[in-house]
From TrEMBL:
TM regions (residue ranges): none
An example molecular function term from Gene Ontology annotations: uroporphyrinogen decarboxylase activity
Segments forming domain Uroporphyrinogen decarboxylase (URO-D): 15-182
SUPFAM superfamilies reported in the protein's UniProt record: UROD/MetE-like
GO biological-process terms attached to the record: porphyrin-containing compound biosynthetic process
Descriptive protein name: Uroporphyrinogen decarboxylase (URO-D) domain-containing protein
Amino acid sequence: IYASMDFPDVFEGTIKAGMKVSKQTAEISAQSQAEAFLFFENSSTTLMSPDIYEKYVMPEIEDWCDIVHTYDKPLIQHACGHLKDLLPLMAKTSIDAIESITPPPTGNTELWDAADILPERICLIGGIDCTVFLDSNLTELEEYVCNLTEKMKGKHFILANSDSCPPNVELKKFKMIGDFVQGRL
């Protein structure tokens, strides 16, 4: 942000050069045999304002969407952190899914709130905050997952941990969630 104020020409030139390279990368990638693409760009209002997101991030995401969709492949955006104030802008993009939507305390967005703001065509992936995954006992985690899946019933949604999984999460928690989901199918 400081560079954009102190050296606007250099800043804008750097952004344009980076966007050119990322667009070329998207084109090369889209021509591969990969069936889908996930990119990490860490949108969060702890890192940028909605104005910065709209001016610099959205156009680049739209370029990537245009390229990847030309090859009939989905583009998935990794976006963790504080997304609530960015969701109205994200709703205007052509992204196919948003992965790692993070509820409190790590993020600030519950999946059901995101589902109310984003168009139904955008699949939501996540919902289990890493601290809940780590700190909850099996009963608490099952209650959390049950509540989450009930609130997301009928939505375009994939249950997953949000952002990252702490290294000390016990395997039995993954098994419990797998069994819970299998029991609901």
